[in-house]
Amino acid sequence: MKKQVGSTRNSINQYFKCERKRKASGARQRRTIPDEYAFKREKIRVAHKERVAGGSSSKEKGFRESVEGQLSGISKVLKEFAIKMKKNKKKKKQRDQRRGRLNSNDRKYHKP
């Protein structure tokens, strides 16, 4: 029975170790950025729906307009978010320069 407790503890520790590594690698920050490809896919899916529906009944027209409205709203939010991210990056870079932490080829500021 004791052995199992040990192995369980080890697996739990292993899990937290992985979690720590993942956090350290900055995976969490990268995951929170809205995926523009997902946004494009959504757009394509909506366009496909429209083509399949084809008809021009008032209900479908309404649906189409509401979807277009939603999409434009999403793109607006994405744009604002991108601008905010850029500003934050600039601020961080300036702060790091002031504190003398910045190398000319720092990966943090030159992501491909």
TrEMBL record:
Spell out the protein name for this chain. Uncharacterized protein
Q: Which organism is it from?
A: Polyplax serrata
Stretches with biased composition (Basic residues) = 84-101
Which residue ranges are recorded for the region named Disordered?
83-112
